[in-house]
Each structure stands twice: as C-alpha cells, then as structure tokens.
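Recap quiz, item 2
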Amino acid sequence: MSAPRQTPPPVRFKLTIAYDGTAYQGWQAQRVGTGVQELIEGALAKFFPSRPRLTGSSRTDTGVHALGLVAQFAVPRAEFRLPIRKLALAINSALPADVRVLRAARAPRHFQARFDATGKQYRYQVWNSPTMNPLLRAYAWHVPQPLDLTVMRAAAKMLVGRHDFRSFTANRGAPLEDAVRTLWRCDITRRGALLTFVLEGDGFLYKMCRGIVGTLVQTGYGRFPVDAIKTMLARKNRCMAGMNAPARGLVLWRVFYGRRPPSFRRPKG
Amino acid sequence: MSAPRQTPPPVRFKLTIAYDGTAYQGWQAQRVGTGVQELIEGALAKFFPSRPRLTGSSRTDTGVHALGLVAQFAVPRAEFRLPIRKLALAINSALPADVRVLRAARAPRHFQARFDATGKQYRYQVWNSPTMNPLLRAYAWHVPQPLDLTVMRAAAKMLVGRHDFRSFTANRGAPLEDAVRTLWRCDITRRGALLTFVLEGDGFLYKMCRGIVGTLVQTGYGRFPVDAIKTMLARKNRCMAGMNAPARGLVLWRVFYGRRPPSFRRPKG
C-alpha cells in the first residue's frame, strides 16, 4: 500500500541583481557580445547541474546599468543543497566584479519576475557643466549647455499620468499594439552640477526613459517649448519628440511587486 | 635712442584638473606606467612649442582620483596666442576622457601651485554593505562588516587638531623630519550604504589620508577602542595605527589658496 512516488515541485528563487552595463549588451545577449543574463546563468550552472534558465524583470538595453533588477529561476528540489544565506555569495564568487547578486531568496512557487512586477523605478544622471566629471563618464550624460530646471520640471509634470507614450519609444520594427503606460513620478533634482531624474511607472516601453530624458533636456535648453510635450503625446509619433539620452546615464533602480509603491501619486485629470 | 630690447616675462597659467586615477601611476610617473602630469604635459606640447613643465599641488598616489588638483606652468609670452577662455577646451581635446582640465586661468607671476597652497580637502568613499555596488567598484572601498558610526566619529574627533601624524604615514625609506600637520576637519557622513569621509588640513603626509580612514574603519568594527587613537598619535610609530585604506576610494577634492578655508575650526586644547 505504498503511495506512488511523486516528483516534488521545483524550488524557485528570486535574485536581486546589480550591474555596471558598460561592458555588456544589456540583460539579454544580442547577436554579438555578452548579456548579463547568460553570464549569471553560467555562474548558476556551477552550482545547479540542471543549468537553470534565468528570467529577468526587465530587458535593459546595451550599456544601461541596474541596481535592483529582479530575476527568477527554478531548480529540482534535489539540487537545492546550499544554505540560502550562502547562495548570493556563492554565485558572486563565479561572477566578474561588474555584476553582483545583492540578494538571493526563496520565491513563491509561481513567482514571475517579469509579469508580477507592478512598477519600476529608473534613475538617470546628467552632468550639467562645461567640462565632464571624469569619475562619472560611465554613469552620466554630459550636457554642457545651461539648463532651465523650472521649465524642465514643468515639462516633466505634463508626462506624469496615464498616456500613450508611443512618441517616446524607439521603433523596433514591429508596430506597437499597446503603448499606454502610467508614469506616476518624473522628478528632477539638482546637487551641484549633477541632475538626477527619477522615473517611476507601471511599465516602460523600449527606450522610453531615454526618450523622456532626452526630450526634457532639450526642453531645458530651449529646443522645445514646455507645451510641446502635450503635442508630442497627442501625435503618437516618435518623430515628434526629442532625442534619446545616451544609455550610460540610465540605471534600473528598483522593481516593485505587490501593492503600488508608496510614492504613487494619482495623476490629476 | 632706442631702449634695449627686453625679453618680456613668461606668462603663467593655473589649471584645475580632474582625473580618474584607475589607469594611472598617480600624478607623477613611476618607473613604469603613466603619470597624469606627463600626460597633460604631452597635451600642452601640442599648443606650446617650449614644451612647458607642469607642477602640481599634490603628488597623488597610484589609483587615487582628483576632482580639484591645481597645477601651474609658464610659457614665453610669444607663445600665448590662444584666447584664455579656449585654453581648457584645447588641452582637453588632446587628453583621454579620464583626465579633464576643468578650468584654465592666468596666474600671478610667482604663483606656485604646491607651495602657495594653504590647505587641502580629500574625500574618501566606503561602501558599507555585504555586497559591493558594482557602479562604485572603482571609486569606493568595500567594507562588508557592520560599522559603528558613533565610535568612528568619536575617534575622528581625536585626530582633529595639530598633531605629529607620523603614525599615520607610510614609510618611504627616508626618515621623516617634520610630521606635524593640522587637520581641521575629519567628518563622516552616511547616505544609505555609502560613507563619505571629509578630511581637511594644511598638509597631508604620504598615504596619511588612507592611514586615517583605514584606522577609523577598523575602529568602527571593533579592532581598536576609541582611546587607542591617542596612543597611536603619541607613539609616533606607523606600526601602532591601523591599515591603509585602498587608493580607489580617495579623491583629492579641493586645494585652498590664500586665507584659511571657511570650514576651519580652531582645534580645542
């Protein structure tokens, strides 16, 4: 009367990952170059013979950085032998210094880093001074022209809310079916010559952050009037908005799960 | 009755220089590698046929960064043809991106970047978290142990004042004749996992900043009691103090000329 042997369900893990994107073709490998995903999968393979696939919350672009990307993987229960508190340390020992697993934790059985995400925060750095700061050359965009922060903040405010952001995403060939996203935060702070843009929303289209920052900076030096933002959103055409800010200034800062993050402010109107 | 022809005095310039020290053997070249000084001298030679020598305010060590090093050079008046407001731009066009001239200005005839300096500010960054931030790996020291900031600040306070800092300088072979310096600021601030040490004084001995930061961090995790700082100063022996913090966390932030900087606080007692 022995019960039939059942395979126990696989064990699922959630990783919080930071990387300097300078040397990588983004999260996913392109035709050439290395993706951060395959790099970490290589490290996982040293500890888990089943060579688990890693699925990330976001597919950051070439050269973009991350301090809080979330990813999940699953392994057969039999392979789960390392104590969980040592897992991040073990994976890091097999990674180069520009990629770090900040936290490794057990995840609920059906956790999906990408589809369960309820929001994301990106930050973008601009060095606004005639000469670039050499210590920030890999982490900020150098904008030498004087910028009118008041004008930029007024423009940023117009982007907050639920909009069709088609005008701010790069065309990847295929027509975009749904470009409606909610941006609930678009702040700009200044500390000396360093401007930091904080963008938070329920989802970001391909190169959307960089399109927004590029357009706001161009508004700041007079290339567009503040009201142009309204027209850009209304026309739903990439040619209407401004330039893409370079990748090196962008950091995927945090991915939110569960309830809306505390900084959510309901857009007016 | 024509006056005898006199050679006009040379024209003197003051440069404010920033660099990422990662790739360099410090300000001055060692037996191997490249120094920032010779790199800028190479750029100057493209604009000034007399190939002027550059004299810096400080000789930063291998791997140490700078955001406000000051240097001077002089050229015959006949070679001074570029408008001064274009000089920094011109020199930068002949430099790699990790070295920048932030400002170029005419200097008084007898200005000496090194001997006229009345004070210097150094900053040191520590990333105090179990895992390193990959974006700071070239600009901060990773200290994974928990640090007691209260204890560290008490220890830092004991270093402020006029002291013989022999115990905090690395021995370069030759015996040190005068090791008395005034440190008028030694602050530690925390922003998340990032600690920033701000050290200001009338002069710093070889590796003195790194000796101080290393000792304070070791005090922060219990290697030394706070009072040990007093003994270290009194003994005037390098073996008494703690470790040297690594070069990559250190930035020569600013060099002061003329009157004492506004942050000067007269040490008590």
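The longest helix of chain B spans residues 208-220.
Residues 16 and 70 of chain B are 5 Å apart (CA to CA).
End of item.
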